[in-house]
Amino acid sequence: MSELDTLTKEQQEIIEEARRRRTFAIISHPDAGKTTLTEKLLLYGGAIHEAGSIRQRKANRYAASDWMAIEKDRGISVTSSVLRFEKDNIKFNLLDTPGHKDFSEDTLRTLVAADTALMVIDVAKGVEEQTEKLFEVCKMREIPIITFVNKCDRPGLEPLEVISNIENQLGIEPIPASWPLGYGREFQGIYDLIGKELHLQHKEEHGAKKAHTEKYNLEEGLKEAQLSDHEKEKFREEVMLTEDMMKMMDEEAFKNGKATPVFFGSALNNFGLDVFLEYFAELAHPPQPYLDESGNEREIGRGFSGFVFKMQANMNPDHRDCAAFIRITSGKFERGIEVTESNTGKKVKMSTPHTLMGDERNILEEAYPGDVVSLFNPGSFRIGTTIYSDDPVKFDVIPLFTPEHFRKVSTKDPFKRKQLREGLKQLAEEGVVHVFEMPNGVGNELLLGTVGALQFDVVEHRMETEYNTELHISSVSYHAARWLDQNQEIIEKLESSYSTHVTEDMEGTPIVLFDSGYALNQAEEKVGAENLYKFKQG
Ligand code: GDP
């Protein structure tokens, strides 16, 4: 008897639906090609027929909605949506995160809602800073990571150099899954190391259409390839060296994010994408059970549950509206169901949920684990809120990330202290910014902390437009921070150092601020690095 036979019909349906979902997020540094690759995945996934529309849609969105002046001014996307496409009966949910330089905690939180991370690396640059930060979150969650080395049509590191760069920078084991035939200007296709086929490719219509592809076995393909005999010989050697690595990959190491299959290609020219997408569907995880607050797995087939991983306010400035993005963790979602908010016990009817595909909003009738539902004007929902229909559960899955940028803030008008606290408290609850008491602070000032510096502009703008409070923001000299437990002994030890300052956020969670990297090192020695948290479960 199979595992499915003991379940009710509805549970079977839920599990089967969940199994064909792949919910993933892209981790990359700006300019590595995330936007281009996203679009090409939609092209190869059959969701669009010609590339170019996403950028177009991005541009239209700025024109149609100026919900946030900053977004428009800087021509970047501060917010993110979910892109869905279906291919060969597999449903992909791409939790689209912004890829600009000033990234925010939102970008990190999105990874908490993803089952797989797709790491995009620029072949010329190797692993870059923002990718490393995002990688830390993947490591914490132990989710599988699949790597795409992009821009192989440009001069860059040689494939073997990329492999060792990934290993050295991230301490993860890279396992070649495809291999580029020629690189830079000579890049002309991909060897599929799993299927053992050489794909010779030509770009079509500057990459707007799928690449023209001819498949050969290795030797036949090499006869057709435009490479010198010496380069062909080198290619054979590299293939010999790498071709069995995927077969021997340690499944557990891959599942826990300790080994990553590496694909090569060019998103711009559409080289290597067919091979990549085919194996991505196989390799990427279907939804896994999340752990509830007691550490027990919430089985996928149980009653409906989910958690809010992202809040987006003021999508339309005329209505002061707000959307909560909910990752479904178990059960079936149906429009109109009544859910309970686990921390307040409040009941909410899910009557107008939407999914967002770019800018077209479709009302969603049903959804399964792995899917994301966005609910407009969700009242008291906050980041991390758990909801369930009739089978109670509470998740505590959204960590506090360590702020890396700090500013001191007060109101220009001294009579607006109350608005300052109230407004900032709300923004903190929405997850826009961390708000702390100033260490040894007096009067009117509060301390803001963010993961990305752009968030300060967001805070300033929103405080002015939504709370009618003009801020005075000034710099402070804090260099780094670490979250703490409520442990008086450790707090006292830390407070005794001159360049180390303990304070707390508006919920009373203690945090320590350091004036320098040296002060941080000193503290690690004094109280133990294991007591200073880079991420803290909220
Ligand atoms: P993002 O910032 O990561 O979203 O990067 P984009 O997708 O916007 O790409 C950044 C730049 O790199 C753009 O000018 C793209 O046209 C270019 N680009 C993306 N993929 C490739 C590629 O495979 N080859 C080359 N030569 N350029 C690419």
Automatic annotation (TrEMBL):
Q: Which residues bind GTP per the record?
A: 28-35, 96-100, 150-153
* Pfam families hit by this protein: EF-G_D2 (PF22042), GTP_EFTU (PF00009), RF3_C (PF16658)
Task: Tell me which UniProt keywords the record has, alphabetically.
Answer: Cytoplasm, GTP-binding, Nucleotide-binding, Protein biosynthesis
InterPro entries, per database record = EF-G-like_DII, EFG_III/V, G_TR_CS, P-loop_NTPase, PrfC, RF3_C, RF3_dom_3_sf, Small_GTP-bd
Lineage top rank: taxon: Bacteria
- Where found, per UniProt? Cytoplasm
The Tr-type G domain extends over: 19-288
Q: What is its main location?
A: cytoplasm
Q: Which PANTHER family match?
A: PEPTIDE CHAIN RELEASE FACTOR RF3 (PTHR43556)
Give the similarity note: Belongs to the TRAFAC class translation factor GTPase superfamily. Classic translation factor GTPase family. PrfC subfamily.
Q: What does this protein do?
A: Increases the formation of ribosomal termination complexes and stimulates activities of RF-1 and RF-2. It binds guanine nucleotides and has strong preference for UGA stop codons. It may interact directly with the ribosome. The stimulation of RF-1 and RF-2 is significantly reduced by GTP and GDP, but not by GMP.
Record protein name field: Peptide chain release factor 3
Recorded name of the encoding gene:
prfC
